[in-house]
Design brief:
Blueprint: H1 14-28, H2 39-67, H3 76-86, H4 88-116, H5 122-141, H6 144-159, E1 169-174, H7 180-187, E2 205-211, E3 214-220, H8 234-245, E4 249-255, H9 264-274, E5 282-288, H10 300-312, E6 315-319, H11 328-349, H12 361-369, H13 386-389, H14 405-411, E7 441-442, E8 445-446, H15 455-472, H16 484-514, H17 521-524, H18 528-538, H19 543-550, H20 559-565, H21 567-575, H22 578-591, H23 605-625, H24 641-644
Parallel strand pairs: 1-3, 1-4, 4-5, 5-6
Antiparallel strand pairs: 2-3, 7-8
Helix pairs in contact: 1-2, 2-4, 2-5, 3-4, 3-8, 4-5, 4-6, 9-10
């Protein structure tokens, strides 16, 4: 059952509706008609344009109709709640107007497509298309009020709490200011406003809590006054709707201290007035504010009124104080237990028997499927083995006590040294199998069946024999052409040796790198003498580099810039290729900023300080008002031209 409508799509206004549909038509079917085209092509183009506009209108209307709930398909609680909040007749009329507009648009499209079919010229077809779109837009303009109303309903529906009418529910009701919202805040985490004046709660509030691993929902209803149903306002009717339609446990709150502003007699009278709504429900009379006044402290007349409530039906009285939290948990637990038991009983009563004739209930169905086995020869008594009877209690000071695993651990070195033997308690057909190796299964086969335990010894013997044959010259053949089979064997043997050597080296490398420390940065650094030696061997002059390292340039001047100011360097550039010199000059120009934006146009530091102060003063208003300034990025809305251009004449640039 759908209980939230936060996914209803937004409803645009009539003007936005027209802009959306016509701009979509222009994007999908841009005008590509010229006077020289065949009349059949012109008719087909404008027919397609009218049909596409009609389909877009109908698609948008249908999306609105499908998004809103149908009153006849939802739960009676939600139906009456919507009737209370929005007036069901007004809601149906608004949706009916949308549906009627959808049919009118279809009729207009059908009529004008029939007329365009017999158009004789480009001008006539275009005028018919223009008239068709104009009539559709006029129909949409007449939906101004229904669309505005449905958008307000959508926004309010999205703010309503999510109430499941079929789950376990505690419904809190009573006069205003008797402590209903305080109790809800005590048992749930709902953020309900609590104030010392009446009608603080103006709508339904929902909180959730867990009890015995089950999720419960508690609903706080607005206060109800004792007057006829026809005189109740929208706030009170929400409470009446919840009480009438939700399967729940009713917690009727009373304030016997009369701090709420209503006497005990008025509160009892209200209970009797709304009692018909409590039919087939669990009802609790909850006395609140017992820290101020308890029911035992009332006069005899007031106690008699409260007793009349308890005598009339299955009503249980509970007491609590939300200010001191006395009895809050007891009230919650009692109500939840009664509600769980009632729901279980209701489920057991529902259903039919296997034949479907007599409603025996679900309990009868379960009992019919259960068979209790009974012994054949009388009653079988309980049997306790002798070993269990003679079992002595463990005493750590007894020298003949049975050894525990902790004692064995202490004898064998204690924790961290002794490792428990889990296999000694295996129950196998043969105790010798306990310490056998576990089989490794791969592709459904035992890997150990394919492993030779003597493979290392056999391989070492083969290698020894091979080395012996090579030393004796067994493979030194005088024939120029070697036997193909022997060559293949020798090649495989060589591959095996290489593979084994690689595996051995990798294992050795992993073992050596396992505990190796990281090389510090100081050990990685190269000395200046090593660099000079390397540059000299490569044929470069290292004097300039050594001078730069010993006396580094200051104030951001680099070696490259010093070289640029060096006349000898200029001579070298002048003797080189002119194109290369120009390219180097361009590269240097790109690497240097043309101007400094912070000081550009400012004569001195005083003027710079004044400019910064004026900039901060100009931005202060923008920061305080949270508005855009000249430094904020602004993107204009990307709209089609026809949405913001002026009026044009017929046949000019109308693209719609």
């Amino acid at each position: 059952m759908k209980t939230t409508w936060k996914d209803i799509p937004p409803v645009p206004t009539s003007q936005e509706f027209i802009d959306i549909v016509l701009s979509r038509t222009q994007r999908q079917l841009p005008t590509q008609i010229r006077p020289g085209f065949k009349i059949s092509r012109i008719r087909a183009f404008y027919t397609r344009k009218v049909k596409y506009t009609q389909e877009t209108f109908c698609e948008k209307f249908q999306a609105i109709l499908d998004g809103f709930p149908r009153l006849q398909d939802i739960h009676p609680f939600h139906r009456d709640l919507m009737n209370t909040l929005y007036d069901a007749d007004h809601f149906r009329i608004a949706l009916g107007q949308i549906s009627t507009a959808k049919h009118l648009v279809e009729s207009v499209s059908r009529d004008y497509v029939r007329l365009i079919k017999y158009g004789q010229s480009l001008y006539q077809c275009k005028q018919l298309k223009r008239a068709a779109l104009g009539r559709m837009a006029t129909i949409c303009k007449r939906l101004k009020d229904p669309l505005l109303y449905l958008e307000q309903v959508r926004q309010h529906l999205g703010r309503l709490p999510s109430i499941d009418p079929n789950t376990r529910t505690l419904l809190i009701c009573g006069y205003p200011n008797v402590g209903k919202s305080s109790f809800l805040r005590s048992v749930t985490r709902a953020d309900v406003e609590v104030q010392p004046y009446a009608f603080t709660t103006k709508s339904l509030y929902v909180g959730h809590f867990d009890y015995k691993y089950l999720r419960f929902q508690a609903i706080d209803t607005p206060g109800i006054l004792d007057h006829p149903l026809e005189e109740m306002n929208t706030i009170e009717m929400q409470s009446i709707t919840a009480i009438a339609h939700l399967r729940s446990a009713i917690l009727y709150f009373m304030d016997v201290s009369e701090q709420c502003g209503y006497s005990v007699a008025d509160q009892v009278k209200l209970f009797h007035s709304i009692k018909p709504l409590f039919a087939n429900k669990i009802v609790f009379l909850v006395i609140n504010k017992i820290d101020v006044k308890r029911p035992e402290d009332l006069d005899s007349e007031a106690q008699e009124m409260i007793s009349s409530i308890l005598k009339q039906g299955n009503v249980e009285m509970l007491q609590l104080s939300c200010a001191t939290t006395e009895g809050v948990t007891h009230v919650k637990n009692t109500a939840c237990d009664r509600l769980i038991a009632e729901r279980v009983a209701q489920k057991l009563k529902t259903g039919t028997n296997s034949s479907g004739a007599t409603p025996t209930g679900r309990l009868g169905e379960i009992l019919a499927r259960i068979h209790v086995a009974q012994p054949i020869n009388g009653v079988r008594e309980a049997y306790i083995p002798e070993a269990a009877k003679n079992h002595k209690k463990y005493d750590k000071d007894d020298p003949n006590r049975p050894k525990l695993e902790r004692d064995i651990e202490a004898e064998n070195g204690g924790p961290g040294v002794y490792n428990i033997d889990l296999r000694k308690n295996y129950l196998l057909a043969n105790d010798e199998w306990k310490y056998d190796k576990m089989p490794e299964i791969f592709n459904g086969k035992n890997v150990y069946d394919y492993v030779d335990p003597d493979i290392e010894a056999k391989l070492a013997a083969l290698e020894e024999e091979e080395e012996k044959l090579e030393a004796e010259g067994f493979y030194d053949s005088d024939d120029s052409v070697e036997d193909a089979e022997d060559a293949e064997i020798r090649m495989k043997a060589e591959l095996i040796r290489e593979k084994r050597a690689l595996m051995r080296n990798e294992a050795r490398l992993r073992k050596s790198l396992k505990n190796r420390a990281l090389i510090p940065r100081s050990a990685k650094a190269k000395k200046l003498s090593e660099m000079q030696k390397a540059l000299d061997e490569a044929g470069y002059d290292a004097d300039a580099v050594a001078a730069h390292a010993q006396d580094p340039p200051t104030r951001g001047r680099t070696l490259t810039r010093e070289a640029d100011n060096d006349p000898d360097a200029m001579d070298i550039d002048s003797t080189s290729n002119p194109r290369e010199a120009i390219a180097r000059a361009k590269s240097r120009a790109r690497s240097q900023a043309a101007t400094n934006r912070l000081t550009d146009g400012v004569p001195d530091a005083t003027a710079r300080t004044k400019a910064e102060r004026l900039q901060k003063l100009a931005q202060k208003k923008m920061n305080r008002m949270a508005r855009q300034g000249e430094a904020d990025r602004h993107q204009t809305a990307s709209l089609p031209k026809h949405l913001f251009s002026g009026k044009r004449g017929i046949g000019k640039t109308q693209r719609r």
